[in-house]
Amino acid sequence: MESGYYPLPVRKAGGFMTSPRVTGSIVTHNNMKTIKETLDTIFANIGNVDFRLYVIDNASTDGTPNFIREQYPQVCLIEPMTNNGFGAGHNLVLPMIESDYHIIINPDIIIKDNAIEKMINFLDAQNDIGVLSPKICFPDGREQILGKKNPRLKYLFASRLRNEQAPGKLLREYAMLDEDLSKIQDIENTTGCFIVFRTSVFKQLGGFDERYFMYFEDADISRRAAKITRVVYYPDAVVYHVWGRESKRNFKLMRIHIQSMLKYFIKWKTI
Fold it and tell me: Is residue 256 domain-resident?
């Protein structure tokens, strides 16, 4: 793991912090437009959870790390010298965390109604669940149509050509739209914008596969996790995602998306 420089993120006013019950990590790269609302809503809605947040800034040039350093002293800021991608960024915290639960959070997530505390309380009562995915909605409350089955080429084409108002058969199958999604249930695929792991599971898996710079690392770790624990959709907790689907408009991101897709299908020997 190539990490570059990062400070030891354990000092806080009053001395050294003890290990919290819950940790979270956010990987940023030029996310000044969204990171303030994400951090503000996390800390305003953490409830009674003993929580520590790491932000890994992947070589931003828009002032994100200075903003976080000045405005959020409670955040443990990690600054690699290079941008090694989404999964590699999150993996930097692996040797630092000794929590019960670790949460992967995108820098464009909005937290309301103490959703994190609700998920932790649920997991405390369900020892056989190692990975939890909440209901994910747009900021206006519409539920996002996200894959809950393992990716297949036919599903990905359907997702690219999606009609949000009238999703077709394949997209409905991929997102399990014909299932009763008001119920807690096992799923194959979680979405990397927000995932709750038992820290022991996240460490046993070795974190994300760093061969994926971005995209499909969430599908990959979900698939690996399902071999050792339950991966569960929990609709009773809701988080909000400012989702732009940038890879549909940006050629560089589209290329990365295709490269990651090919790596995924080659690794898992499936299309």
Answer: no
Domain count, the chain: 1
pLDDT value, residue 18: 64
Q: What is the mean pLDDT of residues 71-98?
A: 97
Mean pLDDT in residue range 158-181: 93
Are the C-beta atoms of 57 and 30 separated by less than 8 Å? no
Rounded-to-integer distance, Cα 70 and Cα 47, Å: 24
State the Cα–Cα distance between residues 271 and 264, nearest whole angstrom: 9
pLDDT of 100 > 70? The answer is yes
Domain holding 118, by residue range, is 11-139+184-245
Q: Does pTM surpass 0.90?
A: yes
Structure token digits, residue 15 = 């001395």
262 in a structural domain: no
CATH of the domain at 110: 3.90.550.10
Residue 61 CA to residue 34 CA, distance in Å, equals 15
Asked if residues 29 and 85 have their Cβ atoms less than 8 Å apart, the reply is no
